[in-house]
Amino acid sequence: MHFGLTDEQDMIVSTVRRFVENEIYPHEAAVERTGEVPRELASELRQKVIDLGFYACNFPESVGGAGLNHLDFALVERELGRGAMALTHFFGRPQNILMACRADQIERYLLPAVRGERMDALAMTEPEAGSDVRGMKCQAVRDKGDWVLNGSKHFISGANHADFFIVFVATGEDDTPRGPKKRITTFLVDRGTPGFEVRDGYASVSHRGYKNCILNFDDCRLSDAQVLGDVDGGFAVMNTWLYATRITVAASCVGRARRCFDYALNHAAERRQFGQPIGKFQGVSFQIADMITEIDAADLLTLSAAWRLDQGLPANREIASAKVHASEMLAKVTDTTLQIFGGMGLMDDFPIERFWRDARVERIWDGTSEIQRHIISRDLLRPLGA
User: Fold this and answer.
1) Coil, strand, or helix at residue 93?
2) Helix H or strand E segment including 186
3) Closest by CA position to 151, among listed 175, 187, 181, 119
4) CB 164 within 8 A of CB 189
5) Which residues on neighbouring strands pair with residue 172, listed in sequence order?
6) pTM for this one?
7) Is 22 exposed, middle or buried (0-12, 13-18, 19+ CB in 10 A)?
8) Residue 147, SS3 per DSSP
9) DSSP string of 29-87, one letter each residue
10) Are the C-beta atoms of 184 and 105 separated by less than 8 Å?
11) What is the pLDDT of residues 266-293, one digit of tens each?
């Protein structure tokens, strides 16, 4: 078993980290202060990534991507996790679900997304359908050969910059022994489609500038050509392409934790109290030891889960373990770092308080910690009949 990185993987890590340090860090304070990423800056970042050859690096070479496997892409996400999400968003990682595009959808959605000409956003969550995806009320019904969409979505990340949306809606209902069960279909919806409105969402304390939006559909009419995958096949599309996104969350948590840890380590070595560095005191040094142990564990869990996917091995439980451990580890690391900094940790002279705030959402999106634990326990208990 080999735990080291190849020369190519080392190059990926160093290239992405250098990009984040040189192109992302300098703009973080302004984005944090204003809550906005200027469109000119967004375009500039996107073009630099394209020139670097890393745009849509999570897509196969056959469609113009860099063709990175899951492990290599996890390394990319780990380094991007060091930077503000509002800015690293423009590093350009379109949703892999676009690989389900067929016929004219390839030229209209897939290839422009890979080339960086159009940006996508995923729309699944609703006010009453978060973890319970089948509880969604946004629906599409047949009318004169078209589909008519009505309802709303919220917490749609990156929707303010999206040119089109990958939208999951209910398209029917089946009676089952456990009660009614909704059928789900995925649609590709262009910004500006009549009956479709994108508006500002809620103000969040996490990831300022990386906005969530509300989508409203009011008799929005779509053709069959905008169905992604099969009618009533939304869960098949989702399970094929989306469940690995939890690795992205885990990897970014590890990257952000390592950046935060560097602040804690340096502060513990430089800050002096009672005539010596505070790192000399066991109360601080043991916290440093615990932090790096938890970070390394989360890193290995994440890379191991990505490796299993590349080997074609079952990885659902391992991905869930990586996501829940990495997100909860980040919460501990940011909180402990703030404690080591003391009162200055809460001041905006340092990014510590930002890391602390940003960490909170990671235990919620892409499946809450409770959902991850359900996945893990179900995977272990089902083979035993429990």
Assistant:
1) coil
2) strand 179-190
3) 187
4) yes
5) 183
6) 0.94
7) exposed
8) strand
9) HHHHHHS---HHHHHHHHHHHHHHT-TTTTS-GGGTS----HHHHHHHHHHHTTS-HHH
10) no
11) 999 999 999 999 999 999 999 999 999 9
